[in-house]
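The instructor's notes for this session suggest beginning with a concrete chain rather than abstract definitions. Hand out the sequence below and ask the class to guess, before any prediction is shown, which regions might be ordered.
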Amino acid sequence: MSVPRTSWSQRFGRFLVKEIKLILWPTIYFFCAFNLIVFTTNLMAHHYWFALSSFLFASVMALIVGKVILVAHRFHFLERYRGPPLIRAILFKTVFYTVVVALVRVLEVFLHIARDERGPSVAFDAAVAAFTWQHFTAVQVWLFVCFLIYVTVIEVSRHFGTDTMKHAVFGRAG
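After discussion, reveal the predicted structure:
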């Protein structure tokens, strides 16, 4: 009796479907969260409600953050405070993700400075002149809250089980 072999394309297809299923819910959540941040920032700071470049950047960042979170779940040091009390793991992961995103935001500014056609020194001076602590802090608070919600749901779901969470949120099926 011969064992049917799967082709390379079938294995790749299964891998791709598995990865998409893993990244789907975090990406949807962060897509909504980051675009809400962009929307409110545009309303408050720029006095308009839509900017295509900001929307596209927030959407791409949601994809990146969704995948980074899934990869980060494999890091053992993030599981350092796993188990009761849950608040330790929730706050540890929330602060970790918030700091990483803050570093990515700073790196993004430096990439814009490096690619600016006016030259790095002029671009740096313009970036420093445009920087405000109020805007930076407001966005970081939003990010902290978004990560706090996400990590809380994940940790509580992991602790009590997905079936218990589904029952608690949606009630009894049927």
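Then share the key points. Helices lie at 8-46, 52-72, 86-115, 120-130, 133-160, 162-170. The chain has one domain: 25-170.
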